[in-house]
Design goal:
single chain, Immunoglobulin-like, 277 residues, five-stranded mixed beta sheet
């Protein structure tokens, strides 16, 4: 700003003195000298014009811009400096992704600093937005790491969701069906299923069947893995009962009696009360 103001003043003075009648030789010898009054008047005029030009230049608003964007790897720090946003907020973003890095309140000049510990998250280029009117400027980050964020990275994978369903009821010696219905992967596919039945047996089937040998309550776990290698697990229970029938109970005989009779006459007998529970 100072050099521009001086240029205005020097140019005006030079122009006015050039217009003074007379000629000054290169050796400093004047062939025709103007009056001292004329020189005084012209000098005052030059000073007034020079001072006015200085005031106009000082009042001229600075251009909103980023002066410097630099990455300091020793301090893990991003520094962005600029001007042209007097008493206004400036929002700093990753120019490639639109991610807001922060906001700084400015005076005539502004400076933004941000600590970033992961080189892959350092922006390759930043933008500054003057919040009052949305004016946006951009600048490459000097000394940015080779793997800086240029917006070309893949979208982070969403892990799958496992659903083991249940709880399940089972009988020893009989196959029980298990279901993975409801398991999903919103941004890809499920590549594998891993069932653990809680009794030391496993299965990689999507919807397996399993037979328990002993009664009890078992924790059943399903783990699903998607096409990007992320996984999720869900657990439920299987209650297993013994399939053996109760032991046989012998029948009960009841001959009743004692009975009385006469020789030569028939006597009636009864088995009433005999049963088999």
């Amino acid at each position: 700003m100072e050099s521009r103001e001086n240029t205005y003043s020097y140019s005006l003075v030079l122009a006015i003195f050039t217009a003074i009648p007379g000629e000054i030789s290169s050796m400093g010898t004047s062939t025709k000298r103007p009056s001292s009054r004329a020189l005084h008047l012209l000098l005052c005029t030059a000073l007034i014009f020079g001072f006015s030009s200085t005031l106009l230049a000082a009042k001229r608003p600075s251009v909103f811009d980023i002066d410097r964007a630099k990455w300091d790897s020793r301090k893990d720090r991003l520094e962005v400096k600029g001007g042209g946003a007097t008493n206004q907020d400036v929002t700093i973003l990753n120019a490639a992704t639109g991610e807001v890095l922060g906001t700084v309140a400015s005076g005539r000049d502004w400076r933004f600093k941000l600590t970033i510990t992961d080189d892959a998250q350092v922006p390759c280029r930043v933008s500054a937005v003057r919040t009052s009117d949305g004016t946006t400027v951009e600048k490459d980050v000097s000394r940015a790491p080779s793997n800086c964020d240029d917006g070309s990275g893949d979208t982070p994978n969403e892990p799958p969701t496992a659903q083991a369903n249940g709880p399940y009821s089972a009988i020893t010696g009989s196959a029980t069906d298990f279901s993975s219905a409801g398991s999903s992967d919103t941004d890809g596919t499920i590549d594998s299923y891993a069932w653990n039945f809680g009794d030391g047996n496993e299965s990689s089937d999507t919807n397996p069947s399993h037979t328990y040998a002993d009664p009890g309550t078992y924790t059943v776990t399903l783990t699903v893995t998607d096409n990007d290698g992320d996984s999720d697990s869900d657990s439920t229970t299987a209650s297993v009962e013994d399939d053996q029938q109760p032991g046989n109970e012998p029948p009960t005989a009841n001959a009743n009696g004692p009975y009385d009779g006469m020789a030569g006459e028939a006597v009636s007998f009864t088995s009433a009360g005999s049963n088999d529970p």
